[in-house]
Write a structure and sequence with these properties.
By secondary structure, the chain is of the alpha/beta class. 39% of the residues lie in helices and 26% in strands. The chain has one domain (43-180): 3-Layer(aba) Sandwich (Rossmann fold). It has helices at residues 2-9, 36-43, 47-60, 74-82, 95-107, 120-131, 151-157; strands at 14-19, 30-35, 64-68, 87-92, 113-117, 136-140, 163-170, 173-178. The strands form 2 sheets. Strands 5-4-3-6-7-8 form a 6-stranded mixed beta sheet. β7 and β8 form a beta hairpin. α3 (47-60) runs parallel beside α4. Mean pLDDT is 81; it is low at 168-177. Bound molecules: S-adenosylmethionine (SAM). S-adenosylmethionine is lined by residues 19-21, 43-45, 69, 71-72, 74-75, 92-94, 97, 119-121, 140, 142-144.
């Protein structure tokens, strides 16, 4: 998996990205053209966090997994590989990134990963209804503008038995917290 990550991280292919998250600042969204490899190097979790994600899903075997912020699909690959039999939905605002992630999933033979494209503000409610039960949620705090409110509440209120991992990548410091265990 790390080889796959490195291959994507060294890609010089330009991607036209749409960002509804922190990158958009005060605007509703922002667009820019950026090399795929740079996106991975800047936005994806470190190798140790990726390994942790893999170990968590391998150990707890969550059946229903939700990820907010697919980007190039790096964390999705580790999460899904820990429990290949899980049902996984990963959500992404940028259709071009989602398409690249989908190609990577196919290359690695990872099936049963649905990518929902669009702004979480418009897609999350229906996705949660569709999932009914969520056993594991992953998002990076830089994904949403005010992560402790709104989106996280919708996810957390869904049910009580939830493994919920939050990565905090503010001010260059990384910490992780697990707030509930199945
Ligand atoms: C930190 S990156 C995710 C990194 C990814 N998990 C990985 O392993 O590479 C956050 C992603 O969330 C997406 N995003 C942020 N806010 C969003 C929103 N409101 N709706 C849809 N996508 C959003 C961005 O487009 C970006 O690709």
């Amino acid at each position: 998996m790390w080889e796959q990550r490195n291959e994507i991280a060294s890609s010089t292919n330009p991607v036209e990205t749409v960002d509804f998250g922190v990158g958009a600042g005060k605007k509703a969204y922002s667009t820019k053209i950026i090399k795929l490899g740079k996106i991975v190097r800047l936005r994806s979790p470190s190798r140790s966090v990726l390994k942790l994600l893999y170990r968590i899903t391998k150990y707890y075997k969550p059946e229903n997994i939700l990820e907010l912020g697919t980007s190039a699909g790096i964390s999705s690959i580790y999460i899904k590989s820990g429990n290949p039999l899980s049902n996984m939905i990963t959500m992404e605002g940028c259709a071009n990134l989602a398409s690249g992630a989908n190609d990577s999933f196919s290359k690695l033979g990872l099936s049963n990963i649905d990518i929902i494209i669009g702004n979480f503000d418009n897609t999350l409610e229906d996705t949660l209804k569709k999932m009914k039960k969520v056993d594991f949620v992953f998002l990076m705090e830089i994904t949403v503008k005010n992560p402790r409110l709104g989106i996280l509440n919708s996810v957390y209120n869904l049910q009580t038995k939830i493994v919920y991992l939050l990565l905090t990548i503010f001010t260059g410091r990384l910490e992780w917290r697990m707030l509930g265990i199945v």
